[in-house]
Amino acid sequence: MKKSIFIISASILLILSTAIFFLLNHNHFLIINNTIEDIKINNYSIFLYKDKNQPSYEAMTLNTVSKTKIDIETKENEIIHKEIKLRKLKANKAIYIYSLKDKKAYKINLTPENLPKYKIKTKPGHTKGYLFTAPIEAINWSNAIAIIIKTNGDLIFYHNNPYKDMLLLANFKKHIMPDGTIYYSINMKKNDGKTIDYYECEIFLFDKNFNLIKKITFPDGSLTESHVFEMLDKDHYFLNDYYEEDIYIPEWKKTLKALHERVFEFKDGKAILKFDTKKNPELYKHPTIIYKSFWTHIKPGGHLNHILVDPKDNNLILSFGYSSCLVKIDRKTGKVIWILGGKNDMFNLKKEQSFILQHVPQFTSDGYLTFLNNNLNFETTGNKQFSLPGGSKITKIKIDDEKRQLKDFRSIELGMSIDIMGNIQELSANRYIIGQGHNQLRMFAEEKDIVTGKTYMVLDVPGYANYKVLLYETLD
User: How far apart (Å, rounded) are the C-alpha atoms in residues 73 and 188?
Assistant: First the structure.
């Protein structure tokens, strides 16, 4: 009997000493008496896509801002709830949950397998803060993960797509409401789209502590699209979708299935604005036929890639990349007020003021509209087209709506060609975050003074592209 007690005590002592070792090495160790049936980390089961015989597991989402919620279900019908605060999300650290009855430990790594390797290099004077992005594999476009990286290199947050075989997500951003309330959102892929440009999404909406509040879709449950989501207040936001219908393209001398896009403004569950590109065929006229042989799978259409409200008159500005134009919409009538750029430009832009495949226009504090002008310039070799280096620019303009002219125009060359995606974010008069989208140099993002040319921060994520990179100085 004494021998039996000694053996049990030694076993417990071994477990306790192991737990102390793990804790001293910034791991987390939980001991459960009974047989473990399920383990949920922040409301997602670690067995969602893995069986119970794996050497290690990973959480769908973790962060270092709020406490991590752990719910353990046992075969004895217990529900054990624990909360722990993670100080660091590091590749060699884990949460260990040990079942005394099964004599088995479940290891949950603090970083997921699909987290890309990244490096941040900064120089004195760089803007300190938090970088929001969703790196996507640049070759096969098969994987994306939403992450927040502090400018000192620390991983603060990550979130994968919880829907099986839906490995993509996009448009990770922060929203500040009129009353100061903070939300975060991710466009989470749920279904494949009808073309590679688009996929169908739910909007995952989080509070400031990264707790999932709700999943936003259209009121009838149908899904939104992957490029945009803009939020004006808790129950006031913009969604968009698309549908196919034949359209004749004069430049190509053929009829193809076009993607007609619709923009909706919802308030308290009701649609108070609807805009349909089908009623505006001018939006399908591309200034260049860059997709005729370069990407034959892409179907013609305006390709909405951003929505913003003009603070001057509270009307809506839509950015259509393929049509290379910005379109102002009356939010009361849904009618077009003006078109800037493209083949139906109403501002008589000069050649040097034109832009191609622009992304993410934003208003600055001094009243300018600024955006990334991808400015694709192609040369053709056989049946293939290749983008020439050095073409992309930052465009900064002041618009006179009544006279339909530019009061000021500035253009700054980036010295590289961003083929698709990407963004620019003005931090101060001359300082920008440049999300470098997809480019042949495989650059990811940088903070740069566009006057002096000095680079203050470089985020390198080898083998990955991005739709956008945004820097916020605080999370609150």
Answer: 28
Report helix, strand or coil for 127.
coil
Which pLDDT belongs to residue 1? 40
Q: Does domain 119-472 have CATH number 2.40.50.140?
A: no
- In terms of Cβ atoms closer than 10 Å to its own Cβ (0-12, 13-18, 19+), residue 166 is middle
**Residue 11: its pLDDT value, please?**
52
The single-letter code of the amino acid at 135 is P
Distances (CA, A) of 336 to 280, 327, 329, 412: 9, 7, 5, 29
- In eight-state DSSP terms, residue 42 is T
Listing DSSP states for 279-338 in one string gives G-GGGG--SS-TTSSS-TTPPPB--EEEEEE-TTT--EEEEETTTTEEEEE-TTT--EEE
Region for residue 83 given its phi and psi (left: phi exceeds 0; alpha: psi -120 to 50; beta: otherwise): beta
Q: Tell me the C-alpha distance between 355 and 372, whole Å.
A: 9
Domain boundaries, the chain: 2-109, 119-472
Structure confidence by residue, pLDDT tens digits, 437-475:
988 777 899 999 999 999 999 999 999 999 999 999 999
**For a pLDDT cut of 70, what percent of the chain falls above it?**
86
pLDDT above 60 (res 381)? no
Quick one: CA dihedral 242, 247, 250, 256, positive or negative? positive
